[in-house]
Write a structure and sequence with these properties.
alpha/beta, 17 helices
Length: 424
């Protein structure tokens, strides 16, 4: 696969040309694809170091490459060496006559901002001069449930609070079929492309504990031992950018608490389908967030939550077909602390083991995650996290690190009982 780019006024446009091996590897990709980034204020697209442009190309092209990715421009020898961390493919370039980009000491940091609770929680514990960068999805001719209205309003409110907010439009998600981000960190590519012009020292993500340490699924993992961490921390470091996860030790419960307790929390809305102030109340994310909110307010399970299980195909599929349910522990936390709901919710409580699991640790910060916060503001963020959430004690850490949610005969019986409650 070959990739090239050109900058034209307020856009940077990437062109990808696939080889025969790539088309065998992914027949849907075709022979030639383009994706672009565009400033939303009409300003000229800023210059960017070739290594950082190469990182953007890798982030978006990697899933579609069969054997080799050839970059149609020169990069540094150091960056090309760093790409050897990608074991599945080989990365080549037109030359290595470029000097590597050194990390800035500007003290200026960036957050890949989505407008949701998790990225807002991350912003709340980062330095005050952090600049959020929002990736505005280009409109598609095909039907899409995504609505940028709420996220753009979040950006507007952050601007009113004094934050320097950047909005960069891109269509890279249309490289995939079905539509979606090529890699989970592709959301940071607009930030990478403006990082030199803004002199960013680091780029942060609102990745929370369930995603970082695997507790949204079957078992806890040590993230720093993962191939994901080794890959992206190596490549970010190679282009002179810190890779930072300030809320990696914060559960979805904790990020909800942060947004309730911190003044900046009011700018968020997690639903990406509804308008600002009017979430769709029909998606999986809305189901989780509404249930968490009820738990944190010590409310009863509302009729709306029960109705969502019956009327939303998406919610029903997540609850009945995912084994385990994604973020099942978070549901256990919420359902344990809410009363009522009828037979459906009682059956769901049994399925999620609310009578067995102790989920109180989800309210506190996992202190070991401080190693994933960039050293330049690690202590500042840790102090804020301890003040707002408190730090997990040794017993809570043990519960987290022993997290397991494997499929077994008992769980299957409980799942059948839950399905019967929905059909009864």
């Amino acid at each position: 696969m070959r990739v090239s780019y050109e900058t034209i006024e307020n856009e940077i446009i990437f062109s990808i040309f696939s080889e025969k091996s790539d088309r065998r590897f992914n027949a849907k990709f075709g022979g030639h694809r383009q994706f672009r980034y565009k400033t939303t204020d009409g300003s000229t697209f800023p210059e960017c170091h070739p290594d950082r442009i190469a990182l953007v190309a890798i982030m978006n092209a990697l899933p579609f490459v069969a054997e080799k990715l050839n970059l149609g421009w020169e990069v540094s020898t150091e960056f090309l060496k760093a790409t050897k961390i990608i074991s599945r493919i080989k990365v080549t370039s037109q030359g290595t006559g470029i000097q590597p980009k050194q990390r800035s000491n500007s003290g200026r940091h960036c957050l890949a901002f989505s407008g949701g609770a998790d990225s807002t929680a991350a912003l709340a514990v980062m330095p005050l001069n952090t600049e959020p960068v929002f990736m505005l999805r280009s409109k598609s001719k095909s039907r899409s449930l995504y609505d940028s209205n709420a996220a753009l309003e979040s950006c507007r409110q952050l601007s009113l609070l004094g934050f320097r907010v950047h909005k960069i439009e891109s269509d890279f998600e249309f490289l995939r079929n079905p539509i979606g981000f090529p890699t989970d960190l592709s959301v940071s590519t607009p930030a990478i492309l403006i990082s030199e012009s803004r002199d960013f020292e680091t780029i942060a993500f609102g990745t929370i504990l369930e995603s970082t340490y695997g507790t949204s699924g079957k078992a806890y993992r040590n993230y720093t031992d993962s191939s994901h961490f080794r890959l992206w921390s190596t490549l970010f470091n190679a282009v002179g950018l810190g890779y930072s996860l300030p809320v990696a030790g914060v559960s979805e419960v904790g990020s909800s608490i942060l947004c309730r307790e911190h003044p900046i929390g009011r700018v968020h809305q997690s639903c990406i389908r509804g308008k600002w102030g009017k979430p769709c109340n029909n998606c999986w994310k809305c189901f989780r967030k509404i249930t968490i909110a009820a738990a944190l307010s010590n409310h009863e399970i509302s009729d709306d939550i029960v109705e969502m299980i019956h009327k939303s195909k998406e919610v029903r599929i997540r609850l009945t077909e995912d084994k385990p349910i994604k973020h099942e522990g978070v549901l256990a936390y919420s359902l344990e602390r809410c009363t009522g709901g009828g037979k459906e919710i009682d059956a769901l409580r049994k399925l999620t083991r609310t009578d067995i699991l102790d989920t109180g640790w989800m309210e506190n910060w996992y202190g070991k995650s401080s190693e994933l916060i960039d050293h330049s503001y690690r202590e500042e963020s840790a102090t804020k996290l301890r003040e707002i959430l408190g730090e997990m004690d040794s017993h809570q850490i043990l519960q987290l690190e022993n997290w397991s949610n494997l499929d077994d005969s008992v769980r299957n019986q409980n799942l059948e009982s839950f399905i019967d409650s929905l059909n009864g």
